[in-house]
Task: inverse folding
C-alpha cells in the first residue's frame, strides 16, 4: 500500500480544517473563511502556472516582482488620471511582455530558468520602484475594489470572487495538465527534455507559452492585490515567490520536474493558507508559524524520497532473501 | 524550427489585448476624479462621560513589526496599563513591516472579538478595509505612533504635536547658541511627511525677530541611512566652516552626526540637537559631544493609548472633537480635531536624566 504525498497533503488539509472547526472560535464563521482563503488569493493564482512550470522542470522566481510591477503601474496610471478599464489591459500586456522576456531568455538564449528569473526578479522589482518610488497610491474605485475584497462573496457562499476565479482557473489547469496532450508533453519535458524533443514535442514553444501565462497571471494577481488592499506600492507582494514555490513543492510537485499533480499543488496552497489562519487565530507567534511552514516543506521534499529509499531497500532485501 | 506559428500566436494575443484596451477605454471608464473617499470615522453612538471603565476589556496591540524594540516598549506599557483598569492586553503582529502584513492580524483579532485594536499602521490605507470591518462589529480602533487614514480609526494617539516638535527644536538650539550663528538641518528623506512638517515649523519659528542673528544655511538629507547621514554631516561641516549648530530631527541622523562630531576637530565647537533615543545617544551625552536632545517617552504613549481605547470601549468617548477622558496617572486628555489625542511635549534628555530611560 503506497500513500501518495499529494493525497497525504489533501488529508492533512482536511484534518487541519476540521481541527479549526472543532477547536477555534471564529474559525468556522463565514467572514473568517472568506478572509482566510481570500488572503492567499494571489499566491494561489500564481501557483497554478508555477505548477505547470515546475512539472516541466522550470521555475519562475519573478512572479512576485511582476505582481509588484503590476501594482506600481496600476497605481501610477490611476494617479495620472487614466481610466481603470484602460489600465488593466495595459498592465496585463506588461505581464505578457515580462513573461515573453523570461521565456525568450530561457528558450532562445538557452539559459536555465532559475538564473534567468533570479535576474528578472530583481529587474521587475527595480522597474516597479522606478515607476512608483516609495509612494503608495490609494483611493481605487469602489466599483472594482469590491470584487477583490473579502466582504463581497459569491451569493450564498463564503467564496470571494478572486477565490471563485481561482477555482475556475484551477479546474482549467487541472484539465490541461492531466487530460491533454500539452499536459503530457509538460511531464515529458520535465522528465527528459531531449527525449521529449526527439519525440516531436515543440519544447521551446511550450516553455515560452508557460512563461507568458505565468507573467500574465502574475500581473493579474498584482491588480487583485492592489484592489484588495486598496494600496498600490512597488514593494507589494515582496517575498511571495517563495510562498508560491513552497506551496507547489508542499503539494508534492517534484522540483526536478516530471512529477506532480495539480490537486497536490492546490492542496499545498490551501494548507499553508488555512494553517496560517488557524495559528494566527490561536495567537501562535509569527516565528513559530514560519518554523511550522518550514518543517512542513522539508517534510514534503523529504518524505517521498524516504518512501522511495525505504521501498527500494525492502525490495532489495526481499530479493536477497528469496535468492 | 517552426517558430512562425508561435510568433503568429503571440502577435495575435498582443493584438487582442490592445483591441480590448482600446475598446474598454472607449467606453469612458472610471478615473480617479470620479472617486471620493474620505472623512474621519464617524460614530452614531452618544458619549457618556460618566460611564465607568468596563472590567475585563480585551485590548490588542498591533505594532508595525513584532520585533521592533521601540514599539515593543509602547505595547508593553499599554498592556501594563490595561492591567490597571482590570483589562487584558496582548501584542500580536507580523515579523515584517510590509504594507499588507498587518491585515491578516486585524481579521483574526476581529474573529477573536477583541474590544479594541491599537495599531501602528505600516500603510495608512492597506489596513483600512479590515479596520472598517472591525469598527462595524463594534470593535474600537485606535492608531498610535503611525496613523491610518482618518476614516479607518476612531482615535490617533500622536506623540506630540508637529508644531511643538518643530518650534521646540529651534528654541532649544537657540538657547544653547545664545541666539547667534549659522545652523543647518540634517533630516531623513526628502519626502518624509512628518520631517517636512517639523522643518516648516522650524523655519517659521526662525523667522521671528528673536532669531535675527541666526541663519539656516542648508537642509541636507541622510535618508535615515547611517552611512549617508554620517557623510552628509561631514560635507556640511566642510562646506560651512562657520556653522555653529545642527538640528537632526531623526534618530538615525542625530546618532550618525554625533558619531562624526565626537571624533573630529568640531567636537565642542558645533552644537548638535534633535530627536534621538537615549540608548543610541547615551555615549555622546556622557562624553559631552551632545548636551541635550529630545523625544517622546514611548511608555507614556502606550499607557495613554491603552486608556484611550478603554474609554472608547466603555462608551466614555466616541472619538469626537472636544470629548474628555482620564488616562490614569497621566491625567485628563481632550480629543482634538480628526480624532487626534496629543501625548504632550517631547521629553528632553540630558546627562541628569538619561539613565532613567532605556529604549
Result:
Amino acid at each position: 500500500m503506497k500513500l501518495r504525498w499529494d493525497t497525504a497533503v489533501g488529508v492533512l488539509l482536511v484534518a487541519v480544517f476540521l481541527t479549526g472547526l472543532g477547536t477555534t472560535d471564529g474559525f468556522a464563521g463565514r467572514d473568517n473563511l472568506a478572509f482566510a482563503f481570500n488572503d492567499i488569493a494571489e499566491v494561489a493564482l500564481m501557483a497554478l502556472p508555477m505548477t505547470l512550470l515546475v512539472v516541466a522542470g522550470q521555475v519562475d522566481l519573478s512572479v512576485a516582482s511582476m505582481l509588484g510591477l503590476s501594482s506600481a503601474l496600476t497605481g501610477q496610471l490611476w494617479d495620472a488620471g487614466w481610466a481603470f478599464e484602460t489600465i488593466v489591459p495595459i498592465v496585463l500586456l506588461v505581464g505578457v511582455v515580462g513573461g515573453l522576456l523570461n521565456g525568450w531568455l530561457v528558450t532562445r538564449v538557452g539559459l536555465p530558468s532559475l538564473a534567468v528569473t533570479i535576474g528578472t526578479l530583481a529587474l521587475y522589482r527595480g522597474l516597479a520602484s522606478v515607476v512608483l518610488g516609495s509612494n503608495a497610491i490609494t483611493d481605487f474605485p469602489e466599483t472594482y475594489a469590491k470584487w477583490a475584497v473579502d466582504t463581497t462573496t459569491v451569493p450564498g457562499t463564503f467564496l470571494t470572487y478572486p477565490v471563485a476565479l481561482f477555482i475556475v482557473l484551477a479546474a482549467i489547469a487541472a484539465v490541461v495538465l492531466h487530460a491533454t496532450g500539452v499536459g503530457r508533453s509538460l511531464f515529458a519535458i520535465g522528465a527528459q527534455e531531449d527525449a521529449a524533443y526527439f519525440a516531436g514535442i515543440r519544447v521551446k514553444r511550450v516553455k515560452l507559452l508557460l512563461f507568458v501565462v505565468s507573467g500574465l497571471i502574475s500581473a493579474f494577481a498584482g491588480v487583485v492585490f492592489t484592489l484588495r488592499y486598496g494600496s498600490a506600492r512597488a514593494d507589494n507582494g515582496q517575498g511571495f515567490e517563495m510562498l508560491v514555490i513552497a506551496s507547489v513543492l508542499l503539494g508534492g510537485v517534484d522540483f526536478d520536474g516530471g512529477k506532480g499533480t495539480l490537486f497536490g499543488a492546490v492542496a499545498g496552497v490551501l494548507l499553508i493558507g488555512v494553517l496560517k489562519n488557524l495559528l494566527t487565530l490561536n495567537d501562535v507567534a509569527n516565528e513559530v508559524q514560519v518554523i511550522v511552514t518550514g518543517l512542513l516543506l522539508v517534510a514534503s521534499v523529504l518524505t517521498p524520497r524516504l518512501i522511495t529509499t525505504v521501498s527500494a531497500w525492502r525490495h532489495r532485501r526481499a530479493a536477497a532473501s528469496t535468492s | 524550427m517552426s517558430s512562425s506559428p508561435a510568433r503568429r500566436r503571440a502577435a495575435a494575443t498582443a493584438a487582442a489585448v490592445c483591441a480590448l484596451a482600446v475598446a474598454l477605454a472607449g467606453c469612458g471608464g472610471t478615473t480617479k476624479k470620479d472617486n471620493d473617499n474620505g472623512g474621519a470615522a464617524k460614530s452614531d453612538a452618544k458619549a457618556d462621560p460618566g460611564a465607568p471603565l468596563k472590567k475585563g476589556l480585551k485590548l490588542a496591540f498591533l505594532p508595525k513589526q513584532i520585533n521592533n524594540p521601540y514599539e515593543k516598549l509602547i505595547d508593553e506599557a499599554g498592556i501594563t496599563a490595561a492591567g490597571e483598569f482590570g483589562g487584558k492586553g496582548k501584542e500580536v503582529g507580523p515579523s515584517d513591516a510590509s504594507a499588507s502584513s498587518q491585515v491578516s492580524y486585524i481579521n483574526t483579532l476581529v474573529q477573536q472579538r477583541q474590544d479594541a485594536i491599537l495599531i501602528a499602521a505600516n500603510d495608512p490605507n492597506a489596513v483600512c478595509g479590515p479596520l472598517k470591518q472591525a469598527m462595524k462589529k463594534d470593535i474600537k480602533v485606535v492608531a498610535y505612533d503611525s496613523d491610518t487614514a482618518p476614516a479607518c480609526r476612531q482615535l490617533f494617539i500622536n506623540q506630540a504635536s508637529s508644531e511643538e516638535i518643530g518650534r521646540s527644536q529651534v528654541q532649544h538650539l537657540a538657547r544653547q547658541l545664545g541666539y547667534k550663528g549659522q545652523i543647518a538641518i540634517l533630516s531623513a528623506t526628502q519626502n518624509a511627511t512628518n520631517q517636512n512638517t517639523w522643518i516648516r515649523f522650524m523655519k517659521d519659528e526662525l523667522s521671528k525677530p528673536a532669531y535675527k542673528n541666526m541663519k539656516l544655511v542648508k537642509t541636507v538629507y541622510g535618508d535615515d541611512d547611517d552611512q549617508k547621514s554620517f557623510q552628509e554631516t561631514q560635507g556640511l561641516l566642510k562646506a560651512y566652516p562657520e556653522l555653529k549648530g545642527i538640528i537632526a530631527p531623526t534618530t538615525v541622523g542625530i546618532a550618525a552626526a554625533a558619531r562624526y562630531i565626537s571624533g573630529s576637530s568640531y567636537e565642542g565647537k558645533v552644537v548638535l540637537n534633535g530627536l534621538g533615543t537615549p540608548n543610541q545617544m547615551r555615549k555622546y551625552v556622557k562624553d559631552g559631544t551632545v548636551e541635550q536632545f529630545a523625544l517622546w517617552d514611548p511608555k507614556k504613549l502606550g499607557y495613554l493609548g491603552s486608556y484611550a481605547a478603554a474609554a472608547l470601549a466603555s462608551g466614555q468617548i466616541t472619538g469626537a472633537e472636544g470629548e474628555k477622558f482620564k488616562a490614569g496617572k497621566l491625567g485628563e486628555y481632550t480629543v482634538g480635531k480628526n480624532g487626534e489625542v496629543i501625548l504632550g511635549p517631547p521629553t528632553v534628555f540630558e546627562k541628569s536624566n538619561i539613565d532613567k530611560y532605556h529604549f
